[in-house]
């Protein structure tokens, strides 16, 4: 592949210098700078559902982007009609943010103040649900119109596990730029043992949650500062206050952290929730990009909704039982996805596109088969 200039943006096969636009970007600096030096076509398309200003801006800085995807444009029009208040009306609701913040405070007290194995295990459960949701929605700019609010939510929500910019590169940049493609770091990190025999993987399963959280947390320091890469995506040390965040994280845990046993307890309970719930709608589908002429149709083919009628799984899976809709509209709040799911399902039916919506039993069964056999299975 042709080497990309680290100071340019690559969208729809064209190269743009958007440096002068960065201070004016409505979504803040981190959002637009995260696309610098890489192909950010998917990010460009999915984060601008409310109007066409982004296409006009791009034209002002270089070649006009190609005509928009008709399938996606029609779907966006339906979503706009369903949410006439636009982006601000789809942010996280204040009462939800307040409730999550209170739970986060309990988590921090249990982990850094009480500091017992049991309290840290409970903190891990809160981290796997509440902390993950604050981090995830903050990283996707779903919480507030103010960039600093989203950035603080991302940083603090992830703090007991690791530096949040590791999550940002792994998930927002890698996963949403190349959704569910084989080799993507956000859907491949638990398949490191695919070469092992099934019986050995079954024996290793109880220890998997600890390994996963370590990979997503402390090891991110190595990925961010030493390797400076997540899969095919480079780390830009200039973006997001990387050095400051890593310093604060190391010092915070060095001076305030509990015992190693407490860390292991937190890792295990956190991973017990995060591992299956983050992977279940991701790692079981690997469509061939050449079979989908539409960008949006490819997004729909790359993941599935599961247990969409269950409030239990909605909360345990940190609001992400509607993965199809999340990949189409990552900047829209989780609480809006149920309405968007119904719109998307009807839209797919109209155009003869398969919209995957399966039970929790089927989804987790497919995930287990993926882990044991090393091969994805059909969930149709």
From TrEMBL:
Transmembrane segments: 96-114
Domain of life from the UniProt record: Eukaryota
Sorted UniProt keywords: Heme, Iron, Membrane, Metal-binding, Transmembrane, Transmembrane helix
Molecular function as annotated in GO: heme binding; metal ion binding; oxidoreductase activity, acting on paired donors, with oxidation of a pair of donors resulting in the reduction of molecular oxygen to two molecules of water
InterPro entries: Cyt_B5-like_heme/steroid-bd, Cyt_B5-like_heme/steroid_sf, Cyt_B5_heme-BS, FA_desaturase_dom, Fatty_acid_desaturase
Any Pfam family hit: Cyt-b5
Biological process, per Gene Ontology: lipid metabolic process
Record PROSITE patterns: CYTOCHROME_B5_1, CYTOCHROME_B5_2
Residue span(s) of domain Cytochrome b5 heme-binding: 1-54
Gene Ontology CC, one term: membrane
Family: Belongs to the cytochrome b5 family.
Protein name: Cytochrome b5 heme-binding domain-containing protein
């Amino acid at each position: 592949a042709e080497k990309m200039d680290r100071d340019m943006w690559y969208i729809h096969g064209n190269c743009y210098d958007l440096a002068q636009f960065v201070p004016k970007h409505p979504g803040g600096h981190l959002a637009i700078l995260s696309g610098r030096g890489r192909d950010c076509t998917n990010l460009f398309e999915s984060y601008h559902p409310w109007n066409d200003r982004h296409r006009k801006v791009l034209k002002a800085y270089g070649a006009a982007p190609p005509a928009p995807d008709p399938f996606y444009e029609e779907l966006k029009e339906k979503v706009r009609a369903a949410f006439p208040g636009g982006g601000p009306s789809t942010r996280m609701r204040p009462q939800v943010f307040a409730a999550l913040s209170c739970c986060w405070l309990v988590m921090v007290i249990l982990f850094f103040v009480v500091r017992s194995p049991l309290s840290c295990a409970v903190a891990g459960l809160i981290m796997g649900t509440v902390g993950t949701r604050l981090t995830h929605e903050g990283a996707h700019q779903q919480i507030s119109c103010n960039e600093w609010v989203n950035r603080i939510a991302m940083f603090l929500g992830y703090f007991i596990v690791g530096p949040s910019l590791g999550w940002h590169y792994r998930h927002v940049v890698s996963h949403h730029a190349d959704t569910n493609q084989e080799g993507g770091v956000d859907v491949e990190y638990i398949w490191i043992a695919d070469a092992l025999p099934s019986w050995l993987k079954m024996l290793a399963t109880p220890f998997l949650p600890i390994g996963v959280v370590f990979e997503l947390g402390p090891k991110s320091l190595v990925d961010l500062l030493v390797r400076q890469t997540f899969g095919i995506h480079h780390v830009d040390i200039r973006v997001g206050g990387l050095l400051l965040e890593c310093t604060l994280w190391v010092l915070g845990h060095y001076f305030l952290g509990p015992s190693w046993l407490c860390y292991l307890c937190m890792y295990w309970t956190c991973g017990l929730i995060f591992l299956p719930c983050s992977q279940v709608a991701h790692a079981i589908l690997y469509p061939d990009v050449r079979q989908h002429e539409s960008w949006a149709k490819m997004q729909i083919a790359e993941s599935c909704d599961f247990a969409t009628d269950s409030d239990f799984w909605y909360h345990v899976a940190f609001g992400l039982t509607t993965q199809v809709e999340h990949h189409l509209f990552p900047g829209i709040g989780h609480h809006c996805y149920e309405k968007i799911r119904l719109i998307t399902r009807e839209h797919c039916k109209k155009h003869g596109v398969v919209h995957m919506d399966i039970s929790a039993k089927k989804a987790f069964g497919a995930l287990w088969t993926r882990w044991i056999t090393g091969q994805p299975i059909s969930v149709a």
